[in-house]
Amino acid sequence: MKKHIRYGLMLAVFNLPVIAFAGDTTEMAVEKPDFKSVTAAATSWKNQSGSTMSLDFAVDPSNPNIGIVTGSYINNAAGYACQGTPYPVTGRYYTNNLAISFNAVWSNAYANCQSVTGWTGYFAYTSSGWQIVTNWNLAYETGSGQMTIASGADTFTMTGTTTYKSLKAED
Ligand code: BTN
Fold first, then answer.
1. 45 and which of 5, 78, 125, 156 could share a cystine (Cβ 3.0–4.6 Å)?
2. What residue ranges line ligand 1, CB within 6 angstroms?
3. pTM across the whole model
């Protein structure tokens, strides 16, 4: 039953018709958010620590199951270095499910923290709108030159989208 509900939700997220599965007896009011509207647009996100990122999505021309995400990340989390300026973000996601993984290398024209962060998670449609729910690992060098990994969780909430408009008259 659990699995049926999970796949029912997944179909709803991908804007496919929700089919009544044999054996499902529970009536569910399923929202039908348009996942395509997320990945077809330049998007902005903010996490619980005040960090922001903008992400652009594109399907990998060599594998339609995979999307490529690029963008920039401004770290505003208290207690961390490399704050307040944009760092490149790159990653991959599935075009046929909700999993996503992306990373930032904390070196730009303003600061170099000699550290990297990888976030792994999934898109989720919630009462706050679209979110990316992640766990992260931050690899960095301690004062004594020892490499170490800090871990945590970030939830990013979508704060805006900019859908690209073609300048061609017929589109
Ligand atoms: C560093 O301090 O070495 C670089 C900045 C790391 C910021 C981390 S990445 C995970 C967590 N989420 C944020 O938005 N900021 C911190």
1. 156
2. 47, 49, 51, 75, 77, 80-82, 106, 113, 115, 117, 136, 138, 140, 154
3. 0.80
